[in-house]
Amino acid sequence: MSSESFLPPPRPPPLLDEDQVLRLAQTGSLPLDLPSPLSSTVEKLLELDREFFALPTSSKEARYPAAEGTELGYYHVPDEKEYLTYRHLHSTLPAPALDSASSRFWSLAATFLHRVLGDLSAALNIPLSAWDPLLDGCLSMPASRNQTTPTLLRLFNYLPASGAAEKHTDTGLLTLCIGTAPGLEVWSPHSRTSPQEGDWVSLHPSSVILVGKTLQWLSAGRLRAGPHRVVASPEGRQSIVFALRPSLRRRYVNLAPFGEPMVVDLAGIWGQIRGSVFNVNAQRGIREGQKERMRDRGLLVDEERGERHGKGGEHDQGEDKENGGRGPGFG
């Protein structure tokens, strides 16, 4: 028997079946059950999460001071929600239990979403190695601030009856959302060719994977970013959100594995994508100011219709930012 008979498989066994891959590609969202190591870590993290948010606000702010706007530390949105954002470990050893559980969850969630990227890659004929430069430093929680990438973990506490988040699409590659109560809704288009026709669908109690705008762009629109929102729940809601975003440690990336024989400035692309959205988790006055500036520039996108709205309510189809702008859809 030749030594070639013992070569490892080119990629891990699939997590998703063909129907799940197609649904994720066409709608940008997929409910699914988590594997047992990840699900057990979720239970522990939610327990520690509840203990943290029960602390006085001054204690939460002192332990995790806000930085980089809303991108790091503890942040409070009056009458809506509070949340804690990790982009790196916040403390030196020995780490508090919450930090340790968050770090473990990060590693398991990142590995899980990496596997999902592998399944999508197989369907799109993209080599698994294509993700290596894009995930450099993203698959485990960085040890310090100078090692961070855009990838982040957020722990949310939505207030009863008023905690919500406006409709939006995420900016990164894939997002994993886990909630303790109803509230997360995804836009489910009736067809690929008519994405403006559809319904808002609650996916509770499932965990949900969402496609982000960067993955839509990399796939030339074959994967559609998933519009979603959070509606208020009478009892309030905790959620864990892990956003796997592109690493910027390698500024220039060759798109040949994605079917485009060209080198692009990934940091520049990421900046454009971030600049095309308002911060749905900022305080209301900040959000409204961002949206007004985007309307003035004709950049405010209707997440269901894929239309850009300008000053005075006019809109146009323009460049298809919601379909990636690089090619036809999947399937």
In brief:
With 331 residues, the protein is α+β, with helices and mostly antiparallel strands.
Descriptive notes:
The protein is an alpha+beta fold. The protein has 7 helices and 16 strands. Strands 1-9-6-11-4-3-2 form a 7-stranded antiparallel beta sheet. α2 crosses α4. The longest helix has 28 residues.
Helix content: 25-40%
Report the span from N to C terminus: 41 Å
Q: Low-confidence parts lasting 5 or more residues at pLDDT below 50?
A: 304-325, 327-331
Q: Kindly report the average pLDDT value.
A: 87
Q: What structural class results from the helix and strand content?
A: alpha+beta
Spatial extent as radius of gyration: 20 Å
Order of helices and strands: HEHHEEHEEEEEEHEEEEHHEEE
| Tally of individual helices | 7
| Largest sheet properties | 7 strands, antiparallel
Q: Provide the spatial order of strands within the biggest beta sheet.
A: 1-9-6-11-4-3-2
Give the strand content.
15-25%
Overall outline = globular
DSSP, total strands = 16
